[in-house]
Amino acid sequence: MGTTTYHTNDPEISRHVLREGDMFTKITSEPAHPLFYMSDQSALFTCDTDSPAFSVSHKFVPPAMSPRAHLGIFGLIVINADLNIVRWTGHSLHVRSMR
Questions:
Q1: Which of 9, 37, 65, 89 is least enclosed by beta carbons within 10 angstroms?
Q2: CA distance linking residue 57 with residue 21, whole number of Å
Q3: InterPro entries annotated for this entry (predicted)?
Q4: What stretches of the chain show up as alpha helix (H) in DSSP?
């Protein structure tokens, strides 16, 4: 389809390629961008990299996605998953948090 996809598991290459800067910018307001039809400069995932919404939201999103933050809510996730399984199937997994 005219696109070349490269895969790597090298963290140094990933850090270099995916960091924001000259190598990576998101400009959804350009008509050629796949998200152009839903571009919204006040939304987190559909705004341009240089949009004010992008910089403000990225002060909060990375800490919220950290392993430490996930560990803090892991027990709640397990309990809610088990409750949903009971609701949908009538059977419990009886999974308990390892904390």
A1: 9
A2: 17
A3: Cyt_P450_sf
A4: 11-18, 52-57, 61-64, 67-89
> How many distinct structural domains can be found in the chain?
1
Looking at every residue in the chain, the average pLDDT score rounds to: 79
Query: ∠ CA(34), CA(39), CA(42), 5° rounding?
Result: 145
Cα–Cα distance, 42 to 14 (Å, whole number): 28
pLDDT, one tens digit per residue, over 54-97 is 888 877 777 777 888 888 888 888 888 888 888 888 887 665 55
Q: Are 15 and 9 in contact (CB under 8 A)?
A: no
**6 in any annotated domain:** no
Looking at the domain assignment, is residue 60 inside a domain? Answer: yes
Q: Is residue 94 part of a domain?
A: no
CB within 8 Å of 51: residues ≥ 6 apart: 41, 42
50-60 per-position pLDDT tens digit:
888 888 887 77
